[in-house]
Write a structure and sequence with these properties.
By secondary structure, the protein is α/β, with parallel strands linked by helices. Helix content is about 35%, strand content about 15%. Strands 6-5-4-3-2-1-7-8-9 form a 9-stranded mixed beta sheet, sandwiched between helices. The longest helix is centred in the first third of the chain and has 30 residues.
């Protein structure tokens, strides 16, 4: 039996966009391999406010206004001028920004791959169609449990209808990330979430929740079993290079060269560049003043927090340069200054 005409058209659009997106992502890898003087990815915050209050999260408040749209576009343009290949909107909850579609369209006009991390609560059919038209490439939702609890309200029970809406209407890639650790009471929930995501045609990944400082906490026995089973479900792609988490799961440190501040930038709602969401405060340079010289300096700078880091996006983006570019001390903040203790001599 054939598909209804509307469903067939949607499948064709998805296949075409997936193919075109794959070509653009291949160019990102080639560009990154050829030159180390540009960022590969930046997370940019359009609003710090969130409609939820997950206890493990330190990246939100319940009052901040949205960043003015023109300011967001200026930041997007500056990141594109630096050569940034991938821009991901995060928060807070980015879907609370009233001009989100305009912001995504501005990203696509500059030729970057446009991503977004959302809790999914605000997704309805018309909203998903608007995201299609704006040109969104990737969307990720983290679902923490099957039923909401005191730790997190991002539950499959609440969000399953949102996932069905995405399955019916989204033309962009959707990844569902489930988590273990960090106080999640039922680690087996991650498997239930992952299987549901794959069943709806999405990709599925697993993350390990960090402590309040973004550092690793080893998993317990049950959590490790679930983590191993989830890893087996993940499809192979550059975006799912998570091998570093195998050490984290066992409480082991990783030996790697963190390229935060260079290949990866975290731009907060105030327009300051930080290493990542868990190391806000350094270098804390206004994005408008960030130059290729800053990128090159931070590329060479060793970060003392790296061995116990759990921030997946920084690991993944840094992986492209794992084989080159020895790091050492290039700049040491004074005691009492933002970033003191993050950089150490090798």
């Amino acid at each position: 039996m054939g598909y209804p005409m509307g469903e067939t058209a949607l499948k064709l659009r998805r296949k075409w966009k997936s193919w075109a997106r794959g070509l653009r992502e291949a160019r990102v890898v080639v560009k990154g391999a050829v030159s180390t003087s540009h960022p590969i990815m930046a997370h940019i915050i359009p609003i710090r406010r969130c409609n939820l209050a997950c206890t493990y999260c330190n990246e939100f408040d319940d009052f901040s206004p949205p960043v003015p749209t023109q300011v967001m576009i200026e930041r997007i343009n500056h990141l594109a001028d630096l050569g940034t290949s991938i821009l991901t909107l995060s928060g807070g909850e980015p879907m609370l920004h009233p001009d989100l579609d305009e912001i995504i369209a501005a990203m696509r006009r500059r030729g970057v791959i446009a991503g977004m991390i959302t809790n999914g609560y605000l997704l309805v059919p018309e909203r998903v169609k608007r995201l299609n038209r704006a040109g969104l490439d990737h969307l990720q939702i983290s679902i923490d449990n099957v039923k909401p609890d005191d730790v997190s309200k991002k539950s499959l029970k609440v969000l399953d209808k949102k996932l069905q809406i995405l399955a019916e209407h989204a033309e962009f890639h959707v990844n569902i990330n489930s988590v273990v650790g960090g106080g999640i009471s039922t680690p087996e929930d991650a498997l239930t979430i992952g299987k549901r995501a794959v069943g709806l045609g999405f990709t599925s990944t697993v993350g390990i929740i960090h402590d309040g400082g973004g550092q690793l906490q080893p998993l317990g026995g049950r959590e490790r079993e679930v983590y191993t089973a989830m890893r087996a479900m993940e499809k192979s792609s550059y975006a799912r290079i998570n091998y570093f988490q195998d050490n984290i799961a066992h409480g082991k440190e990783n030996t790697w060269r963190c390229r935060a501040g260079a290949r990866y930038l975290y731009v907060c709602e105030d327009g300051l560049v930080h290493y990542c969401s868990q190391q806000r405060g350094y270098p804390a340079t206004p994005l408008a003043e960030y130059t290729v010289a800053d990128v090159r300096r931070e590329y060479r700078t060793e970060k003392g927090c790296a061995p116990r880091c759990t921030v997946a996006c920084v690991h993944q983006i840094s992986y492209i340069d794992f084989w080159r570019g020895k790091q050492d001390l290039t700049q040491l903040p004074a005691e009492g200054q933002p970033g003191h203790g993050l950089v150490q001599i090798q």
